[in-house]
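Priority: medium. Attachment 1 of 2:
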């Protein structure tokens, strides 16, 4: 009786894993995730790590946004642009 129960549980687990694998392969075919057939580009991993970092430390993200806003305010004050006196580039 115990052997039949173990075999049934193992067969059920194998069936669940097979169905999960097929679902993940279908999601990969649609481009939602990287599973087995395609490998992620190096930039994808870095972007994922940066998003995780932003979730764990939101205060640093807020600081970066404030710094960007200050930078834009300085640009909008009418000073010379990056290309010269009136902001145009030389030809």
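Attachment 2 of 2:
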């Amino acid at each position: 009786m115990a052997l039949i129960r173990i075999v049934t549980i193992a067969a059920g687990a194998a069936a669940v894993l097979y169905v999960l694998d097929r679902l993940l392969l279908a999601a990969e075919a649609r481009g939602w995730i990287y599973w087995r057939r395609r490998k992620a580009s190096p930039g994808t991993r870095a972007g994922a790590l940066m998003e995780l970092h932003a979730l764990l430390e939101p205060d640093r993200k807020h600081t970066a946004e404030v710094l960007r806003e200050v930078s834009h305010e300085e640009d909008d004050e009418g000073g010379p642009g990056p290309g010269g006196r009136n902001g145009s580039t030389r030809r």
